[in-house]
Amino acid sequence: MSNTREEILGRLDEKLKAIDQDTNVHLEGLVWSKPITYWDYIQTDALLNLQIQRTTLPDEMVFIMYHQVNELLFKMILWEIDQVAHAAAPDAVQFAEKLNRASRYFDALSSSFTIMSEGMEREQYLKFRNTLTPASGFQSAQYRFIEFASTDIENIADARYKHTMNSDTPVEEAYNNLYWHAAGTDRTTGKKTTLLRLFEEKYKAEFLRKIQAYKNINLWATFKNLPIADQQQPDLIKAMRHYDYTVNITWVMAHYHAAEHYLSNGDKAAEGTGGSNWKKYMHPRYQRRIFFPGLWSEDELKNWGDFPL
Description:
Layout: H1 5-17, H2 23-32, H3 38-42, H4 44-47, H5 59-85, H6 92-111, H7 113-118, H8 122-128, H9 141-150, H10 171-176, H11 179-183, H12 194-213, H13 219-224, H14 228-231, H15 234-263, E1 264-265, E2 268-269, H16 278-282, H17 284-287, H18 298-302
Antiparallel strand pairs: 1-2
Helix pairs in contact: 5-6, 5-9, 6-15, 9-12
């Protein structure tokens, strides 16, 4: 494409006329505009003022910043997933590319857990974590969105309810059967923990909307709607399996081992900050979160969480 001044102005004029805009007005505006800077574009000052400690313990700052980085990466992952979910006609090449991007973000999250497991003094963590109760990483809404956007809802249900669910299960019933919803509810009394109650007060309505919105366009549903030839593409299958394994085994186990470092003491294990049984909540062996069950062998499904990819 040529880039002479006349050709550039011609293309600009064409673009602006298409939206009923006056090119001269826009050019006049450029005369008075300020040059962009890195700090304005990235909003550095705003970003660096989002870390507010609740204690005087220095390593709490590591904890805050690390989780904020996680949330930014979750947003990047959702950005890639939504490009597949909302594509008019996704193909195997685009699908694999976006999945590989999302997997790289989760790979970064997995490897970064050394920041947690080795980057804070255990004594400081065990002190400042008490000021965080009943908050917990359990309450990351973006992570829940990633789950809804990745697979059919029955694949992230509590093991007790999976066999009773399918695509026709009402949204609210499906939501109540989610593995993490069950983890926040006392099985005997049905009473919700404060952790879950506050989470729902903030996000339940949005969760229900997301479950419905992704019902037919989540990654697994989109894959199953591809032409058979695309579904059989080795690169796409590899990307799907890598994403599933990375999210539901590699990253989860990295999180698990970081928690184990701080919370285990011999045979005893402290509760999670929200009061959860973090070992059974986190370990893939118990929850068996599998986004793309049709892409794994019976043996792999049976031994989920206990085999290398």
